[in-house]
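Appendix B. Raw example, untouched.
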Amino acid sequence: MAETKRYYWLKLKQDFFDDEAIEWLESQKNGKEYALFYLKLCLRSIRDNGKLIRHVGEMVIPYDVQALANSTRTDLDTVVVAMKLLQQIGYVEVMDDGTFYMTQLEKMVGSET
């Protein structure tokens, strides 16, 4: 029997880039790179309800900044600064187990089978 696939999409409001937090993020040095990195993180976490985790066999492993840099093809220094800024504006939280959680993702996701 064929497995049912679930398809996800990221919904951006028309004024996404006018949001105060995103405007502030983009106004930082390298801010446009941080905004693009944020969108990549949103897409990467979409199947796991906003958690940035990897499934390796039976293990679930949280991404660290090096793994995020590698998987998003983003410079490590950019990732380190972006993650700090995203935490400052409340768009990323670090959970007790070290997993990064995308706080705004729930408002931005749709899915269907």
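End of appendix B.
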